[in-house]
Amino acid sequence: MIDNFAKQMPRRRSIPVKVGNVTVGGDTPVVVQSMTNTDTADADATVAQVAALAKAGSEIVRITVDRPEAAAQVARIRERLDRIGVDVPLVGDFHYIGHKLLTDYPDCAAALDKYRINPGNVGFKAKRDTQFSQIIDLAQKHDKPVRIGVNWGSLDQELLTKLMDENAASEKPISASAVMREAIIQSGLLSGERAEALGMSRDKIILSAKVSQVQDLIAVYADLAQRCDYALHLGLTEAGMGSKGIVSSAASMGILLQQGIGDTIRVSLTPEPGGDRTREVQVAQELLQVMGFRAFVPVVAACPGCGRTTSTVFQELASDIEGHIRASMPSWREQYPGVEGLNVAVMGCIVNGPGESKHADIGISLPGTGETPSAPVFVDGEKVLTLRGDDIADDFKKMVLDYIENRYGKGASSPSSADLA
């Protein structure tokens, strides 16, 4: 089974970092995180989106802190989230003037659970070390971890130029893209070393090294993982919109995760016009779940359909059940401990339907083209009954909900076939 195989894969050893009430790294499960796209100065909108992301399953949420108006609202945002019972850790995303904002707004510095520093724009020339040092000092004062987040779109140009010049003078020069990757890695490692020299402990440092091309991301993190034991934040930056962003993120991060690399992930999707920001959380969860590293929601297996399945009943039923499960999970996590491990099968004909349904906890094989209009239902590998008539879909949905109650309800034991027959 893929989940057993994945659990046996060796995990890169990293130093665990406490971010609010969440631990990143060490032997803890890979953490899902996301970022708001609201104006942080708009506290109402930001509170609403942070709450929605947390409800969707984001275990850490990052917010932009780019100017005084935003910094002034951070403590208020934290207070309002606490008031409504949303205890998700908040990370402040700082660029250019983070040192000043954290100094001028100490309540902001105290309210955040982690600071993100970009070594490519924390300061320039003579100011770079001074302003970086200020943020590290403030992080230590408030006992906060930092993420040193390198991004190739804002890479330290002095470092890149230096490495390019050295490469040009080398007897065996490497490609410009390889020099770029090395500059990204060095920027993160040198900044981590600088933070440690300033007194920050290694269990307060997370690194990221984001690029927007799949092969570059794999190469950068594979190298970075061998050269340090800092906890690593994975993400393909500017992944794109829709299927392109999903496929690119899954392809790159999936390979790294399979190699044991990555302690927290963010899927950076460009939302569709009017789209839901929580989509990136769902994709991150699905990536970890299909690879067998974590379980977030029950799995609904459904066949793709073919000439045998001209009816759309199985598609509608699978979609209906999956949608209901995902919408119900925030309350079900408390009400039905372990329900995220449930497997449901909704199949469209007799070819693979019965077999697939037997492998699931509860499954149905709906009639395909030309088949008898009946639908056998299997529970824990055994056929328990056959549904017929116009209410097959509604009857099966009720059986699924009854199965969840009987198996995962507090004080309940796993249901027998007889219980559901």
Automatic annotation (TrEMBL):
What this protein is called in its record is 4-hydroxy-3-methylbut-2-en-1-yl diphosphate synthase (flavodoxin)
Q: What is this protein's gene name?
A: ispG
GO terms of molecular function: 4-hydroxy-3-methylbut-2-en-1-yl diphosphate synthase activity (ferredoxin)
Matching InterPro entries, A to Z? Dihydropteroate_synth-like_sf (IPR011005), IspG_bac (IPR016425), IspG_bac-typ (IPR004588), IspG_C (IPR058579), IspG_TIM (IPR058578), NO2/SO3_Rdtase_4Fe4S_sf (IPR045854)
Q: Which EC class does it fall in?
A: oxidoreductase
Question: Which cofactors go with this protein?
Answer: [4Fe-4S] cluster
**Which reaction(s) does the protein catalyse, per the Swiss-Prot or TrEMBL entry?**
(2E)-4-hydroxy-3-methylbut-2-enyl diphosphate + oxidized [flavodoxin] + H2O + 2 H(+) = 2-C-methyl-D-erythritol 2,4-cyclic diphosphate + reduced [flavodoxin]
Keywords, alphabetical: 4Fe-4S, Iron, Iron-sulfur, Isoprene biosynthesis, Metal-binding, Oxidoreductase
